[in-house]
Automatic annotation (TrEMBL):
Organism encoding this protein: Sphingomonas endophytica
Pfam families: Sigma70_r2, Sigma70_r4
GO biological process, one term: DNA-templated transcription initiation
Gene3D superfamilies in the cross-refs: 1.10.1740.10, Winged helix-like DNA-binding domain superfamily/Winged helix DNA-binding domain
MF terms in GO: DNA binding; sigma factor activity
Stored InterPro entries: RNA_pol_sigma-70-like, RNA_pol_sigma-70_dom, RNA_pol_sigma70_ECF_CS, RNA_pol_sigma70_r2, RNA_pol_sigma70_r4, RNA_pol_sigma_r2, RNA_pol_sigma_r3/r4-like, WH-like_DNA-bd_sf
Family: Belongs to the sigma-70 factor family. ECF subfamily.
Name of the protein in its database record: RNA polymerase sigma factor
Keywords, in A-Z order: DNA-binding, Sigma factor, Transcription, Transcription regulation
SUPFAM superfamilies, per the entry: Sigma2 domain of RNA polymerase sigma factors (SSF88946), Sigma3 and sigma4 domains of RNA polymerase sigma factors (SSF88659)
Amino acid sequence: MPSLSASATELAERRRILTHALVETGAEDRAAFQRLYRLTSAKLFGICLRICGERQAAEDVLQEVYVQVWRRAGAYEPGRASPITWLATIARNRALDWRRAQGRAPVTSDAVLPEVADPSPDAEAAMLDADATARVGHCLEQLEARQRSAIRTAFFDGVTYAELAMREAVPLGTMKSIVRRALIRLRGCLSDDA
């Protein structure tokens, strides 16, 4: 049991470090921004690559993501979302915007993607990813099956709400409501776990 609590303490410290780097980036601290990039770029690149489906496009989108992070970091509220969730949302939205601008359908999880130069994040980023993944997985399991499926498809596969509504044969407004209610429940669950 001691190793489990030490691990939880370590994960909490990693999250604190990432939160601090993001908050300091909001205060236009360039060194903090560099730390934030080192801690998160592998994960955010993976999100961009999965949605864009092309390495060059994912690199371009990732650059836009960090420009947006630099500009918007001052708006980050640590109590509302974990730093990695906040950053991943920006990456997902930018990648989806790129796909829409290209007039392309989202890449499905079955698609074969080009290999990433260095697929393994550093130990610190891996710890943050493991913690975030476990927390999100636990909270996803608390959702109703329809909500869980909608969240996984929309956020993990990069499918737009309109495409998801067509797949499920429901009106767009209904799908948006399903996803919205699921996100509210997820936020509550993730806040309770924090």
